[in-house]
Specification:
The chain has about 150 residues and is mainly α. The chain has a domain at about 1-65: Double Stranded RNA Binding Domain (2-Layer Sandwich), CATH 3.30.160. It is built from 3 helices and 3 strands, in the order βββααα. The longest helix has about 60 residues, at about 70-130. This is HicB-like antitoxin of toxin-antitoxin system domain-containing protein.
């Protein structure tokens, strides 16, 4: 395999690292070299690529094809985007559930208020029709029991 088919990354070295440049090959783990200039680092890394491939073949290891690191990165990036999209969908669903819960609670409160106002009206009608206080209390307890069956506990 032609060593020049592999992508090479060249970076300057700090003074504490000896100045110069380092060149590494993302597709071939651990494959790197250095030089006083960027050009020298590239020439040296091409020799390192040939040695890396030869060593891998002698030991029966798989030699990654040129561009394999970029393909792995794209695949990982795509999976991360899919994960983020699924998380966004879950957050949207959670928000919809919370909105539905709020709507249900409002409907229950409205129904409860409606039942309470009806009960007061019936109680007033019973009192006006000269029904005894015990009859009104009995009737109201029945209305209350029926109303409570519709409320969440």
């Amino acid at each position: 395999m032609d060593p020049k088919m592999y992508a090479v990354v060249v970076l300057p070295l700090d003074q504490e690292d000896g100045d110069g440049f380092v060149a590494y090959v993302p597709d071939l783990p651990g494959c790197m070299s250095d030089g006083e200039t960027a050009e020298e680092a590239c020439i040296n890394v091409y020799a390192a690529i040939a040695e890396w491939i030869e060593e891998a073949q002698e030991t029966g290891q798989i030699v990654p094809s040129p561009g394999s690191a970029a393909r792995r990165h794209r695949k990982l990036h795509r999976r991360m985007l899919d994960y983020i999209e699924k998380q966004a969908e879950l957050l949207d669903a959670k928000e919809q559930l919370l909105n539905a819960k709020d709507s249900l609670l409002e409907a229950i409160e409205y129904k409860s208020n409606l039942l309470e106002s009806r009960a007061k009206r019936i109680e007033a009608e019973l009192a006006a029709s000269n029904g005894s206080r015990d009859e009104a209390a009995w009737f109201m307890s029945k209305v209350s029991l029926k109303a409570n069956r519709h409320l969440p506990h």
